[in-house]
Amino acid sequence: MSRPLTSIADAALEPVRTALRAAARADAAEVLRKAHQRKDELLADARRTADEMLATARADGAAEATAVVNARLAQSRRDGRRSMLTAQRDLYDELRWRCRAGAKALAESPGYEELRRHLAERALAQLGSDATVADSADGGVLASAGDRRLDLTLPTLAERALERSGAEVAELWAA
């Protein structure tokens, strides 16, 4: 079980979090805008299809028309919902990928050495001073002490931050 960040580490990571959140929100807003646009197109197509079906059904009889239209509209709604959920999943996966890539890119930033030092200190504080701390190729550190392991790599930290911001991401879909 990992302990909460120290106030120094937490403060050092705050600009990273802020930048990641801002980038994630901007990316998510654009992706969500496109998803809403696609959803509107799908709904417009479904409505046109439903209107055409309704005219045909009226010609064949009101009773048959009601049954056919209701069944098709329900299916169109299910299809539209499935398409929207698939688009949301794709957008979330893209957001997740961008967050991880952005975090990984922090290893090339000017303040990385201080961030890396804070992560190493956090690892030693959590696992003990006899822990082995190694740099990760993705940025950040991996630490171990006996059979205990601690992953403080930048992509993993970004992933955890994204998971903690689940409510904020969910709000993007509701917009």
- Given as residue ranges, the uncertain stretches (5+ residues, pLDDT < 50) are none
Number of helices: 5
Find the structural class using helix and strand composition: mainly alpha
Report the principal-axis shape: elongated
Give, in order, the helices and strands.
Answer: HHHEEEHH
DSSP summary, beta strand count: 3
What is the topological layout?
Elements: H1 7-60, H2 62-105, H3 112-127, E1 132-135, E2 140-145, E3 148-153, H4 154-164, H5 166-174
Antiparallel strand pairs: 1-2, 2-3
Structure, described:
By secondary structure, this protein is mainly alpha-helical. It contains 5 helices and 3 strands; from the N terminus they run αααβββαα. A 3-stranded antiparallel beta sheet has the order 1-2-3. A hairpin with a 4-residue loop joins strand 1 and strand 2. Helix 1 packs antiparallel against helix 2.
